[in-house]
Amino acid sequence: MAVANLGEQTAWLFLLAIPIACVAWTVTHEEIFREPREVCVERSQKRGRLLERKFFYVFTCEYCFSHYVALGFIALTGFRLLLQDWRGFVLAWFALVWVANVYMGVFGRLRLDIKSQRLDIAKDEKVIEQLEKQF
Questions:
Q1: Left if phi > 0, otherwise alpha if psi is -120 to 50, otherwise beta: which for 78?
Q2: What distance in Å separates the CA atoms of residue 26 and residue 33, rounded to the nearest whole number?
């Protein structure tokens, strides 16, 4: 990646964090990866060796997994932040992880609010149904 001005680097930071958050969230939360994640949860809790438990735990924690996803995206894009040497790589890595985790936190909160609203609606519909049966 060529030397970019601060505005371009900031845009890269906030845009590149989106697919990082998407991959990390999908692997650690969504139904499509449920079976492999359940295996990882079991192995992270019941294996004897510390290193083996920690390896499998990475696939169950969005924060932990986002570090590896960010590392992969940095390798793929060559993104550096503020400095163009190894220090820019380190800054980019931690900044991307932080922004991606902010995105995942917001997304998780939004999903929780939506689920709560759906439950409230379902409860209200049951009450209305019961009232209609009475009359």
A1: left
A2: 7
Cα dihedral 34, 42, 24, 27, rounded to 10, equals -20
Rg (Cα) of the chain, in Å, rounded? 21
DSSP 8-state secondary structure symbol assigned to residue 61: -
Residues counted in the chain: 135
The full DSSP string for 11-43 is HHHHHHHHHHHHHHHHHHHSGGGHHHHHHHHHH
Q: Does 97 score more than 90 pLDDT?
A: yes
pTM of the model: 0.80
The tokens for 70 are 């960010």
Query: What percent of the chain is predicted at pLDDT more than 70?
Result: 98
Half-sphere exposure of 56 (CA within 13 A, CB side): 17
Q: Which of 24-28, 69-73, 110-114 has the lowest mean pLDDT?
A: 110-114
Pairwise CA distance, residues 103 & 67, whole Å: 14
